[in-house]
Design goal:
The structure is a single chain. The chain is α/β, with parallel strands linked by helices. The chain has two domains: about 10-125, Response regulator (Rossmann fold, 3-Layer(aba) Sandwich); about 135-235, Orthogonal Bundle (Arc Repressor Mutant, subunit A). The protein is built from eight helices and twelve strands. The chain has helices spanning about 15-30, 40-50, 65-75, 90-95, 110-125, 160-170, 180-185, 200-215, and strands at about 10, 30-35, 55, 80-85, 100-105, 135-140, 140-145, 150, 155, 175-180, 220-225, 225-230. The strands form three sheets. Strands 2-1-3-4-5 form a five-stranded parallel beta sheet, with helices on both faces. A four-stranded antiparallel beta sheet has the order 6-7-8-9, covered by helices on one side. Strands 10-12-11 form a three-stranded antiparallel beta sheet.
Length: about 240
C-alpha cells in the first residue's frame, strides 16, 4: 500500500524539465504534484480534481499568468504561490492584489520553495494543535474556521487563504493592534523585511471585499506607523 501524500499540488508552468524537477523533489518529501504546461490545461484540471495548493508561473504560452490567477480566483480560494523570472515590485503587488498568497522569484532554491509550500499546507489544513474552532460572528459578519468560509448575513464573501487568515486572527481579538510583522508571520515563513508591502496589499483587498459585502468600510482601521486593528461595529461612536 502506498504511503498517503502530505498534500497535493498543481504546478502550472510551460517548462516541462522544470516541472519534472519540482515534481521529483516534492514527491521525495511525500508531497504529491501534478503539472500542466498551459494555463488552459491548468484551469481545466482545477475543475476536475481537488488540490491543496497551486504553483503558478507568470510566463505561460497561451493565457498570461495574471489572467490564469484572475480566473482561478473567480472559481475558488485555493492557496496560490506565484513565481516569476522577474523580481519586479510592481509585478509582485499586482499579483498579490489579484489574490496570490505569495510571490517567489524563480531563482528560488528547492529548500525555500519547500518551506513555503509546507507553511501554506500547514496553515490551510486548519489542523494546528489547539486551534479554536468556534464560529466568529460580528454584526452579521460570520467566519467559520472549520469550513474556511466567510459570509455577511448568509451571503458568502470569497476570500483568499491569506485574507482569511488575517481576518480570522483580527476577529479573534477585536481592538488589538496587529503589527505588520505579526500579520506577515500568519502566512509567510520568512525573515521580516520592513520594506515588504505584501501585508498592506492583502489588507487593502480584504478591506475592499468587506466593504463591498457589508456596505461599511470601518471594519479594519490603520494605526499609523504601527499596524492594523479590527473594530467591532458596536464599538463605533
Amino acid at each position: 500500500m502506498s504511503e498517503e501524500k502530505n498534500g497535493r499540488l498543481l504546478l502550472i508552468d510551460d517548462d516541462e524539465e522544470f516541472c519534472l524537477l519540482v515534481k521529483d523533489y516534492m514527491e521525495l518529501q511525500n508531497i504529491g504534484l501534478d503539472y500542466r504546461l498551459t494555463g488552459k490545461a491548468g484551469l481545466e484540471s482545477l475543475d476536475g480534481k481537488d488540490y491543496d495548493l497551486v504553483l503558478l508561473d507568470m510566463m505561460l504560452p497561451d493565457v498570461p499568468g495574471v489572467e490564469v490567477l484572475r480566473r482561478l480566483r473567480m472559481k475558488c480560494g485555493i492557496p496560490v504561490i506565484v513565481f516569476s523570472a522577474h523580481n519586479d515590485e510592481t509585478d509582485r503587488i499586482v499579483t498579490l492584489e489579484l489574490g496570490a498568497d505569495d510571490y517567489v522569484p524563480k531563482s528560488f532554491s528547492s529548500r525555500e520553495l519547500l518551506a513555503r509550500v509546507r507553511a501554506v499546507l500547514r496553515r490551510s489544513s486548519g489542523s494546528a494543535e489547539g486551534e479554536k474552532e468556534e464560529i466568529l460572528s460580528v454584526h452579521g459578519l460570520e467566519l467559520n474556521p472549520r469550513t474556511l468560509q466567510v459570509s455577511f448575513h448568509g451571503r458568502p464573501i470569497e476570500l483568499t487563504y491569506v485574507e482569511f487568515q488575517i481576518l480570522q486572527a483580527m476577529m479573534r481579538e477585536p481592538g488589538r493592534i496587529f503589527s505588520r510583522e505579526t500579520l506577515l508571520n500568519l502566512f509567510a515563513d520568512k525573515k521580516w523585511n520592513k520594506f515588504d508591502r505584501s501585508v498592506d496589499v492583502h489588507i487593502s483587498t480584504l478591506r475592499k471585499k468587506l466593504t463591498d459585502a457589508t456596505g461599511a468600510n470601518t471594519h479594519i482601521r490603520t494605526v499609523r506607523s504601527i499596524g492594523y486593528v479590527f473594530i467591532r461595529q458596536d464599538e463605533e461612536a
